[in-house]
Write a structure and sequence with these properties.
The protein has 440 residues and is an all-alpha fold. It has a single domain, classed as Up-down Bundle (Amino acid/polyamine transporter I). The protein is 78% helix and 0% strand. The protein contains 17 helices and no strands. α12 packs across α13. It binds tryptophan. The site of tryptophan has 15 residues, from α1, α2, α10 and α14.
Length: 440
């Protein structure tokens, strides 16, 4: 009996860690600070938190439930649940989103690997603010180097999927994720002692209503989807592997809390340092890559801290790329009707991803375009379709379809969940979308 309990417990934790590993990644540490910096700091933060509260729970739950009920990945799930092919296009949308995200995500992961290798050989010691900014430009515009460094994480991710060592990675990330959190706490502690750090805290936490524009709201919604890994079907796969007894609501809340904590902590590290060192908060995608090395210079054991941090960042990025690539691999092998086995699918998907990465390295405008298009168009569209699918297309508002996949959902909460899914979530996505286009 007690043994049974521990095994169920550990696999539940395993699932939470895997889903958290997918959620916590460059979205929290690289993208959140730069998007918040470009969109007014505190104004962005408050809208972001509202988006997480509004969309996070219903949408994560929906993806988990679709997976748990159908036992399938994003490819077969919709057809299995609905009994006809009419909703299959959602799988195609998920797949397109996965490829475009991978196109730029691996490039940023490549920056992390490049910075890790440079941290090892002390490249950053003694560089001032301007030199660090110049250094990023130099590194990121070195095409051959960037192509090689983007291919490294593609190969590593493909190897994990090829040898099916996901479980091992999960176990590893049970140790490494808390280590990353501890490391970030220490960095926050150091940064907050810097002269002028309070200006950064004000920038990040002071909420100025006038700074909220339709763009800020759109960017916050996109960042919320991206950071929580929703709207692309990635979590459907996790739902399919969920132990029957796992409580979907509790798991979703745990993932949301963890992901949001990491993003907040990244803000508390980056913004005080930005102001203390005289960087520009609206620096763009390079923000953390110029600010972080400057922070390590101020820390004791600076070599050790920077190497450890960039190593942990690379691993956090890899646990996210694994979940992204998994969606595409499962899709390709299932869509081929079994003609392509897993190994062949891994090869095809990595080949396509390498091409996309090279394009993104050669053409930075494409990089920006993939980043924007996925967060602001494709993921909201994916989330909208999934909420309409469960809320409206499944029999009896999804009750027959998915909600009974989880016995743990209380009756009153089920009502709220379905109400959110049928009305609030779709309406909010559509309103934010039209508003950002200037149509309302
Ligand atoms: N959420 C991850 C991050 O914050 C990125 C990511 C991984 C993702 N898997 C995903 C985003 C699936 C959308 C869908 O870095």
């Amino acid at each position: 009996m007690s043994e049974h309990k521990t095994t169920t417990f550990s696999s539940k934790i395993g699932l939470i860690m895997a889903a958290a590993g997918s959620a916590v990644g460059l979205g929290n540490i690289w993208k959140f600070p730069y998007i918040a910096g470009e969109n007014g700091g505190g104004a962005f933060l408050i809208v972001y938190l509202i988006c997480v509260a509004l969309f996070g729970l219903p949408l994560i739950m929906t993806e988990f439930l679709i997976g748990k009920r159908s036992g399938k990945s994003a490819y077969g799930a919709f057809q299995t649940l609905n009994g006809n092919k009419r909703w299959n296009w959602i799988s195609w949308l998920c797949m397109l989103t996965a490829f475009l995200i991978m196109g730029f995500y691996f490039v940023v992961t490549g920056w992390c690997f490049s910075y890790l290798s440079e941290a090892v050989v002390h490249v950053f010691s003694g560089l001032d603010t301007e030199a660090l900014s110049a250094h990023f430009v130099e590194v990121s515009s070195n095409m051959p180097r960037m192509v090689v460094f983007s291919i490294i994480p593609v190969v590593l991710t493909a190897a994990v999927l090829w040898f099916d060592v996901n479980k091992g990675i999960e176990r590893l990330s049970k140790i490494l994720m808390p280590l990353l959190l501890m490391m970030m706490l220490m960095m926050a502690g150091r940064v907050l002692m810097l002269d002028g750090s309070n200006i950064g805290m004000q920038f990040f936490f002071r909420f100025d209503f006038l700074k909220i524009t339709p763009t800020v709201v759109m960017e916050a919604m996109g960042q919320c989807f991206f950071s929580l890994s929703i709207g692309m079907g990635a979590l459907i796969t996790y739902g399919a592997y969920m132990p029957k007894t796992q409580n979907v609501t509790a798991t979703s809340i745990q993932v949301i809390v963890l992901d949001t904590m990491v993003a907040l902590m990244a803000g508390v590290i980056v913004f005080p340092a930005v102001f203390a060192f005289g960087f520009n908060p609206a620096e763009g995608p390079q923000l953390v890559f110029v600010v972080l090395p400057a922070i390590f210079e101020q820390m004791s054991f600076s070599w050790f801290s920077s190497v450890l941090f960039f190593a942990l960042l690379c691993i956090a990025a890899l646990t996210s790329t694994i979940s992204l690539m998994e969606v595409a691999v499962a899709f390709v092998s299932e869509a081929s009707g079994g003609k392509l086995n897993r190994h062949k699918s891994v090869l095809i998907v990595s080949g396509v991803v390498v091409v996309l990465c090279v394009l993104c390295v050669l053409q930075p405008r494409l990089f920006d375009y993939f980043d924007e298009a996925t967060a602001c168009v494709l993921m909201p569209l994916g989330a909208l379709s999934m909420s309409l699918f469960v809320g409206w297309a499944l029999p009896k508002n999804g009750e027959k379809g998915v909600i009974h996949a989880d016995k743990g959902i209380k009756r009153w909460f089920r009502k709220i969940y379905i109400f959110m899914l049928r009305w609030i979530v779709p309406a909010a996505i559509i309103v934010i979308f039209l508003n950002s286009l200037g149509l309302i």
